[in-house]
Amino acid sequence: MSRAAPLDAAFSALADPTRRAILARLVQGEATVNELAAPFSISQPAISRHIKVLEEAGLIVRRVDGARRPCRIAPAALDNLDAYLSMLREGLERSYARLDRLLADNPRPKKEQR
Q1: Which of 9, 22, 44, 62 is deepest in the core (most CB within 10 A)?
Q2: What DSSP designation does 111 have?
């Protein structure tokens, strides 16, 4: 598996608004598939497929609690995304710093007065 594969899987999972809503709900705490399905007008099997995508992307984990299988956000769910976004942010900051230096070294010529 390439280093980009987990990042690709996470971004792909986050591309769907239903999966983002599921994650937003899980921020409040654990929930079962039925609890996660309640606010949606789609079937429980469809929610289960969304949960599977989120789980395969490493964004959520499930545990067995008797007959229940509650889901929760994975402890390191955002680590790869955070690292990637930090790398992009640092690159942009370096680019802006270079632009600032270039502009400071080359002041704009004054317009001719009429």
Answers
A1: 22
A2: P
List the CATH number of the domain containing 64.
1.10.10.10
> Quick one: angle between helices 4-14 and 44-56, nearest 10?
150
Are the C-beta atoms of 33 and 47 separated by less than 8 Å?
A: yes
Question: Does pTM surpass 0.85?
Answer: no
Range of the structural domain that residue 60 is part of:
4-77
Strands (E), 3-111: 60-62, 71-73
Element at 85 (helix H, strand E): helix 79-105
Q: Considering its fold, how many domains does the chain have in total?
A: 1
pLDDT tier, 6 (very low <50, low <70, confident <90, very high otherwise)? confident
Residue 43 lies in a domain: yes
